[in-house]
Amino acid sequence: MSKNVHLEMTVPCDTTYLSKVRIAVLEMAGEGLFTPVKANLIALAVDEAVANIMEHAYPDEFVQSGGKRKDIDVILDATPERFEVLIRDRGVTFDPRDVPDVDMQQHVKAGRKGGLGIFLIRRIMDEIHYHYKQGSHNELQMIKYVEDRNAKAPPGAVTP
Amino acid sequence: MAADEFKIEKEQIAEKGVMLVRLAGYLDAHTFERLEETIAELFSKGHYKIVVDLANVEYISSAGAGVFIGALSEAHEHKGNIVLMNPTANVREVFDLLGLTQIFQVVDDRAAALAVF
């Protein structure tokens, strides 16, 4: 991908629409930026974030007390260097950075099914930022760099 | 297969009383409950030895993986197991990220799956 690509979509708070979001991410991230497996992982990270909002951002008490509209905005920006995702919702505040990491052995032992989405997002994306706009909306920003920042330098490489 | 389709087939394997659950399509937060119901139904009928054929699963999210995670210890309690067979590259990558390849038996074919029991 030699130019910048920008896409904005708004989906209802309904898991039926997860596939629509994934397809958009796969098309943008897979188009000359990342390998198919990596593009799939980025689509997974976005899927996890959006699914979390669909499942938790609009509890009944929030809606009954006059909660705002349930749509979710997904904004994708791809450049030759990075893939950036901004997800905006108008539900209850939830900072995914506060969620502790998962001990998988304990998770399995306890028969626990959920709580793995944030763990996956952390393992896939390079940067995760959360902003709450008072009385308006939540924004989750996630960035994946095209060049693997954690890649080890080849033997003999000079580190600047 | 459309990007939101998900199929489940069950087959009883005569050997060792194992149930083969064949999945196809996209296993995500929209479709995982169907798999959860299938596993619960198998458990309720006393089937705790389960092989899950993942060869045609194009995509899995944590909601899908969570079904296996949530069911494994109950299977173990009843001297059974949940064996994950032939995952695609995408699915295997997710299992690796979650650390599930250290916890589940992940095998390449039916003979290897049956040898687990």
Provide the structure class of chain A: alpha+beta
Beta-strand percentage of chain B? 25-35%
Judged by helices, strands and strand pairing, the structural class of chain B is: alpha/beta
Q: Biggest interface and which pair forms it?
A: A-B, 34 and 31 residues
> Tally the helices of chain A: what do you get?
5
Cα-atom radius of gyration of chain B: 13 Å
Q: Helix and strand succession of chain A?
A: EHHHEEHHEE
Radius of gyration of chain A: 17 Å
Count the E strands of chain A: 5
Which percent range describes the beta-strand content of chain A? 15-25%
- Biggest beta sheet summary of chain B: 5 strands, mixed
Question: Which consecutive residue ranges of chain A, at least 5 long each, have pLDDT under 50?
Answer: 155-160
Oligomeric state as shown:
heterodimer
- SSE run of chain B: EEHEHEHEH
Q: So what's the overall shape of chain B?
A: globular
- Principal-axes geometry of chain A comes out as globular
Could you list some keywords that capture this structure?
heterodimer, A: 160 residues, alpha+beta, five-stranded antiparallel beta sheet, 5 helices, disordered C terminus, B: 117 residues, alpha/beta, five-stranded mixed beta sheet, globular
Briefly, what is this?
Helix content of chain A is 33%, strand content 24%. In chain A, strand 2 (72-78) and strand 3 form a beta hairpin.
How would you describe the overall organization of this protein?
The complex is a heterodimer of chains A (160) and B (117). By secondary structure, chain A is an alpha+beta fold. In chain A, 33% of the residues lie in helices and 24% in strands. Chain A contains five helices and five strands. Chain A has helices spanning 18-30, 36-56, 60-64, 104-109, 117-124, and strands at 5-11, 72-78, 82-89, 127-133, 137-145. Chain A has a five-stranded antiparallel sheet, with helices on one face. The model of chain A is unreliable at 155-160 (pLDDT under 50). By secondary structure, chain B is α/β, with parallel strands linked by helices. Chain B has a five-stranded mixed sheet. In chain B, strand 2, helix 1 and strand 3 (49-60) form a beta-alpha-beta unit. Chain B is globular. Chain B starts with 5 loop residues before the first strand and ends with a helix.
